[in-house]
Amino acid sequence: AGGCSSQGACVRVLTRCTPRSVDACVTSSHHSRPLRRSGENTKVLRLQRRTFSISFSPRANATSAMADSKRKRDYETGAAAISDFTRSLDADARAMGGAVGRGGGGIQGLSGPAPPTFAATSGDNGGAAGGSKQQPTYLPCKTFQGARGGYYFRLGTQGPGYYLDRVGRHKAAAAAAVAGFGAGGSMMPPANRAKPASQKNAAELLADAEEEAGGERALDGTNLDVKALRKLVLSFERRYAANQAARMKHADDPDKFIDSEVDLDEDVKKLQALAGYPDLYPEFVRLNAVPSILGLLSHDNPDIAADAVELLHELTDADAVESHEEGGAALVASIVEHGGYELIAQCLTRFGAEATLEDAAAVHNIIGIVENIVEIRPEAAGEFCDKPGLLRWLLKRVAPRRETDNNKLYAAEVLAILVQSSEENRQRLGDAEGVDALLRAVAPYKGRDPADDGEEEVLQNLFDVLCTAVMAPGNKEKFVGAEGLELMLLMMKSKKQCRTSALKCVDYALTRCPAACERFVDILGLKTVFAVFMGKGFDKLRRQQGLEAAQEEEERAVSVISSLFLGLSRGTPRHDRLCAKFVEDEFLKCDRLAELWVKYTGRVHGVDIRLARQQAEMADEIDLSEDDVYIERLGGGLYTLELLGIMFASVFATGHDGIRHRLLLQMELQAEDGGEDAG
To answer: How confident is the model over 176-195, as pLDDT tens digits?
Structure first.
């Protein structure tokens, strides 16, 4: 290896190896058996020699023969294998741009310093690697001057002097590389060792702790489990505490705590991933994170408060808790326990101005929280309204002066849910002057139809609230006193889209309320309601709103007239005016009464036939109780038929000969036409 020069043989060896062992077993063209280094456990290191391109000069033949003899001896000890290996390292380093070194220097600093007093005169550029200057390959010297690190003294082709000890350097490089194989299993230089824990700063220690707890995948909420949830809650609590401390310490300098608020906001958003794992809600409650989330609702930074509202909306969403109702119940119970109702209502006041899009989104989420909690915990409808703040805000939000938008629609819907779910809320609505507010909200539609579907839905929700509210006895009086009957009568006469809803509201108001019945007769409501009873305008209504709307108006008119018969005292002028309607136009309304009696009798009979057929065909699958059958018959027309029976008996009881004769005649005619069930 040391005898090859520019005038000798030019040999290029390319090697590849697999760094899997500590030692090497060499296979060469001279020896077919593996040669092992004595005293060590070795594995196979294959040296794949690709091409030998050799050109001989007359002088090089002797040198080549000597080299072959030396190579044979070296292979017996493994020295040639190490030399070939180091040559491959140098070749690969040159191919990668000199990452290891040039010439004979395999690894930096193994050969020791060069003699400082000698200068190179000739030779190849095989200097030591790693320095800005290359080590000379030959240092001329006539006599031996002592040992020089990395050099040996000899009489060579260039004369007496110190020649660069390439073989020694290559052996040292190979030994270092082999040692690297045993330690790390890689040919690459060993990676920088991690700093001891005592030398790491706070940021590095925190990163290590996060990595041990699950890494960033735990923080981004993917594949959330109990361990990852604990990490999310721990990170959130830590940053919440840091933000509170920074705010207290630098209350007058927002620049010094803004970073902590950004971190806190990010952690709040990361907790939204919990909405996909309702089975983890009990653990979330056990970690006592709910009080901290509720505390953020009153945070001085409105953005953080809005994100906390959004988080609660996501966690309580019906789609989120549908698969694990126990988790949703545990979460809501914790919200109730820590005073969440009042904090949620306060947020409505805080963001209620809706000055920005963010405030409007926060209001929408707050209303959604109320709806979600009531769906999970029905008794929450009454608990939310223990204080009138929520009801007053919702009534204010649906006022006619507010533009119709998503929040107005949502407020009307949630208001209807709260009032329909709790009898106490109906009375509270009346105490908060809600009846008058609702009448003001629907009043603009007596002269116009809703502009779009959203406005139409708002109107329907408002009428639902109004109808439910007047079911309470105290609210009936407020409704009459606020001239609600007069407004409903105007809507019925206007023949606008609100006509059916107004008739429905009158029906609820007159039920078991004599004062309302008397007021209705006094404002000349009989003419309007009997026009509906006779089916006036039904054809147009069917074309515009469908058959169901016309059917509903017919049933509502029957209900209103039956309530008048029950609410008005017999022998009074108002009762006489009601009975007189059946004498007008040659007893035309008696004919209509008999017609409706036969119609609804036939409908009930059809329901009975259908139920009997279902029982016969699917007796094993369907087992209807008497209550179930009665409910089916009521929905099929029995309720209206019972109201018609009240009207029939009340009119017949007047003792008027003309009315009695007309009713009996019509019943006989209906029986002859096939209405046997009329009797």
So the answer is: 555 554 444 444 444 444 44
3-state secondary structure 437-496: HHHHHHHHHHCCCCCCHHHHHHHHHHHHHHHHHCCCHHHHHHHHHCCHHHHHHHHHHHCC
Tokens at 610, concatenated: 């259908």
Nearest CA to 599 among 500, 670, 672, 503?
670
Q: Quick check: 135 and 128 in contact, CB under 8 A?
A: yes
Residue 79: both structure tokens together:
């020295």
Q: What is the pLDDT of residues 283-324, one digit of tens each?
A: 999 999 999 999 999 999 999 999 999 999 999 998 888 888
- Asked if pLDDT for residue 341 goes beyond 90, the answer is yes
Q: Could you give the CA distance from residue 536 to residue 140 in angstroms, rounded to a whole number?
A: 129
CA distance 86 to 108: 13
The model's pTM is 0.66
Report how far residue 299's alpha carbon sits from residue 77's, in angstroms, rounded to the nearest whole number: 78
| Inter-residue contact 485 to 506 (CB < 8 Å) | yes
> Phi, psi (5° rounding) for residue 609?
-65, -40
Find all residues with CB under 8 Å of 435, minimum gap 6, and list them.
Answer: 429, 466, 469, 470, 475, 478, 479, 482, 484
- Per the CB < 8 A criterion, the answer to whether 272 and 310 are in contact is yes
CB count, 10 Å around CB of 596? Answer: 22
Token pair for residue 447?
């002269």
Beta bridge partners of 159: 156
3-state helix, strand, coil in the chain (%, to 5): 65, 5, 35
Q: How many CA atoms lie within 13 A of 407 on its CB side?
A: 24
Name the DSSP class of 35.
B
Nearest C-alpha neighbor of 495 from the set 549, 452, 458? 549
Report whether 122 contacts 162 (CB < 8 A).
Answer: no
**Are 406 and 412 in contact, with CB atoms under 8 Å apart?**
no
Residue 599: partners with Cβ closer than 8 Å, 6 or more residues away:
none
User: pLDDT at residue 430 above 90?
Assistant: yes
**Two structure tokens written together for 528:** 């309007």
Task: Write down the residue that tokens 């990361």 correspond to.
Answer: 270
Neighbours of 610 (CB within 10 A): 12
Cα–Cα distance measured from residue 12 to residue 388, given in angstroms and rounded to the nearest whole number? 94
Partner residues linked to 32 by β-bridges: none
- Rounded to an integer, what distance in angstroms lies between the CA atom of residue 289 and that of residue 280? 12
- Give 369's contacts (C-beta < 8 A, 6+ positions apart): 309, 312, 313, 316, 344
Yes or no: say if 447 and 483 are a contact pair by the CB < 8 Å rule.
no
Tokens of 378: 């029905």
Residue 154 — φ and ψ, nearest 5°?
-165, 170
Element housing 72 (H / E): helix 60-77
Phi, psi of 422 (to 5 degrees): -145, 125
Q: What are the beta bridge partners of residue 164?
A: 151
Spatial separation of the C-alpha atoms in residues 475 and 515, rounded to whole Å: 12
405's tokens:
């938008």
Instruction: Name, in order, each residue with C-beta under 8 angstroms of 424's C-beta and a sequence gap of 6 or more.
Output: 382, 385
The answer to whether 331 and 284 are in contact (CB under 8 A) is yes
Strands laid side by side in the 138-140 sheet: 138-140, 159-164, 151-156
